[in-house]
Amino acid sequence: MNIAEPEKSEGYFGGGNVLLDLRGRPIRSANLTFDEETGIGKWSEEDFVRTLATGFRPDGTPLRFPMGPIPELDEEELRAVYAYLRSLPKIANRVPRQAEPEEPAVAASEGQKLYTKYACSSCHGDDGMGQADLRQAAQHFQTREALEDWIRHAPSIKPGTRMPAWDGIIAEPEYAPLIDHVLALGGAGDPR
Ligand code: HEC
Fold it and tell me: What pLDDT shows up at residue 101?
């Protein structure tokens, strides 16, 4: 590490550092230099700002834990981070992406499949005990409608939360089975 000029440290922002997901499996940090093929060289400033503000990549796929949206930074600050990253030397370093989580068992319910598909499990854990404790959802939300509203619009309901807003990402017919699964994680039926 070159402390006076960190940009000159080997591999600076080139990615590949090993982090752990909630299952304890390695997940490598991405290459954030502007190399076109292996980094974020093809990302526009708009893509970058929107992804970090919402937690969804330009193609609509969710960022996975330990990455997520960064509500602490406003748009101007995100633009400044983009400008800084663009100023760094490009590094060609292809970081292997962790495979998408395996499909749950064939016997899994529709809701459990959606919970995995939308990476709810990456932040909340397969059992609902990761970030926040989904097993308490039936106590925290009086009705299914309130729970659905939270899943759609959490950042409007609680500004600064790291729970993304799924409205427009999750297909309409998918909410009911997904909510069934969230409630099942807590061993509860519908909210009383
Ligand atoms: C990027 C990480 C992340 C992803 C992905 C994510 N969540 Fe969350 N979720 C959170 C965080 C953090 C909280 C805690 C919010 C708070 O209180 O500020 C939360 C809270 C919740 C809560 C409220 C729990 C309670 O009892 O208070 C529910 C329900 C929930 N998430 C459902 C989901 C579902 C369903 C999905 C997938 C469609 C999902 N989440 C995907 C991070 C995430």
Answer: 62
